[in-house]
Amino acid sequence: MSGLAVFILTSIIAYFVRKYFYYRPKVTVNFHSNGNSSSIENVKEMRLAWNYEIVFKNITKYDAISLSVDYGGFPFNCITKQKFSHIKGLAEESLQFHYTCLFDREVVNKSKHQFKDLMPIEIKEATFIVTYCNEMEKRFYTKFVRVGEIEKNTFYRIKPRRKSRI
Questions:
Q1: Rounded to 10 degrees, what is the CA torsion of 100, 105, 110, 115?
Q2: Which residues contact 111 (CB under 8 A, 6 or more apart)?
Q3: Is residue 109 situated within a structural domain?
């Protein structure tokens, strides 16, 4: 009878090790600029536009299932609708982000058309929390923090808090 107990105990331990540690997908988030543009609205104003591609990449060979993104205070209404909820191992998916804003023409001229200097705080400082599951339905999280041009992805097993900086 003790052989059966050892077998059952070993099977249970193996199940939990695979569920929580072994089959662990990791999804990273990155911003890639697709260029900026400007247009003259009237004599005193200019419309500036920032175009980005937000890339979600699974950096492991294990599938990330039921993927969802909490954008927080980010202007998510400027992002194309997410058409994916599953990222296969070592694959990536992307969303397009287009943000426009009106500026006083003199402010744009003073900055010498350096769009980086005029970028709204919502884009400069973004925090996303990406939630996804492995094949055994265990949830995992990636917290993406962007401050200026610095981006950081941190991986969690429990849902992280939103408030933190790099």
A1: 10
A2: 117, 118
A3: yes
Instruction: Write the CATH number for 77.
Output: 2.60.40
Tell me phi and psi for residue 124, to 5 degrees.
-60, -40
What is the rounded CA–CA span in Å between residue 109 and residue 105?
A: 6
The set of residues, in sequence order, having a beta carbon less than 8 Å from that of 48 and lying 6+ positions away, is 36, 37, 38, 100, 101, 102, 103, 108, 115, 118
Segment 111-160, tens digit of pLDDT: 877 777 888 888 889 999 999 999 989 999 999 999 988 999 999 999 99
Q: Which residue has the higher pLDDT, 6 or 58?
A: 58
Tell me how many domains the chain contains: 1
pTM for this predicted structure: 0.85
